[in-house]
Specification:
By secondary structure, this protein is of the alpha/beta class. It has a single domain, classed as Alpha-Beta Barrel (TIM Barrel). It is built from nine helices and eleven strands. α6 crosses α7. The longest helix is centred in the middle third of the chain and has 19 residues. It is globular and about 50 Å long. The model has no long low-confidence stretch (mean pLDDT 95).
Length: 270
């Protein structure tokens, strides 16, 4: 099981870059940034663009996986996002990963005149992922979908990682077997499993929920080859829970907290 820091982008860009360098030095295996555009009407705070920050980290590190967890694809132009991820993959020598989801809170859509209706966002997410994969192919690509249209576009250079940088899909535990996010995750390269409290905090993901998610993905895919199972934890989990995740085949433990907490974690061995 590898250990990554799941870092809020509510900080100055230079601070986040320093945090990522410290994390690699301390032995962490990945640095995945949140992807928010602002803190909301009641939470004014600094916010750094994750992709610009990750570019700086790519040039200052040599080993850690770099990416987002998670980028709300429905509020991004897929062509721009495809170029950003491919550029990060080249700058990092093939270490990029893209975590995706619908995005939360809804104000990050509605404050800018966009709909936050979940069904529409889910449709836009699937449409955007199709465009991303097509543009990352390096071949001429055309597409006419419900929300996106591409006419004979060829993006070069293609990403270092083939057939694409890994796409990990966010799911909230417990995940019903027929849920759209879980079906989406099974079509791509990984799942980021998190459990939320009613107040918006992060609960430990129960081992039974990890097992159910793992088994359902394996059933849908016919196995777990090439698939990453990641679990989010608010702070380092207790040893019994960490051991349970390891026994269940969790590939990534993503440890998160507020910037001050994550900065302290980055300075210590996972």
């Amino acid at each position: 099981m590898r250990h990554g820091l799941h870092v809020p982008n509510f900080a100055a860009p230079a601070d986040l870059a320093e945090l990522g360098v410290a994390a690699e030095r301390s032995g962490w295996d990945g640095v995945l940034l949140w992807d928010h555009v602002y803190g909301g009407p009641d939470l004014a705070m600094p916010v750094a663009d994750p992709w610009v920050t990750l570019g700086a980290l790519a040039m200052a590190t040599s080993r850690v996986r770099l990416g987002t967890a998670v980028t709300p694809v429905p509020r991004r132009r897929p062509s721009k996002l495809a170029r950003e991820v491919a550029t990060l993959d080249h700058l990092s020598g093939g270490r990029a990963v893209l975590g995706v989801g619908l995005g939360n809170p809804p104000q990050e859509y509605t404050a800018f005149g966009a709909s936050a209706a979940p069904a529409e966002l889910a449709s836009r997410l699937d449409d955007g992922l199709t465009v991303l994969a097509g543009l990352w192919s390096g071949d001429p690509f055309s597409y006419d979908g419900p929300h996106e249209t591409v006419e004979k576009a060829q993006f070069l250079p293609a990403p270092v990682q083939r057939p694409r940088p890994p796409v990990w899909v966010a799911c909230l535990a417990p995940v019903p077997p027929g849920a759209g996010p879980l079906a989406r995750a099974a079509r791509w390269d990984g799942v980021i499993l998190a459990a939320m409290t009613g107040a918006g905090g992060i609960d430990p993901v129960a081992p039974d929920d990890v097992r159910a998610t793992r088994d359902e993905v394996a059933r849908r895919r016919g196995g777990l080859d090439g698939f990453a199972l990641a679990v989010v934890s608010a702070g380092p989990p207790a040893d019994p829970l960490r051991d349970a995740y390891d026994e269940l085949g969790v590939d990534w433990l993503l440890v998160t907290g507020w910037p001050e907490q994550v900065r302290e974690l980055a300075a210590t061995s996972p």
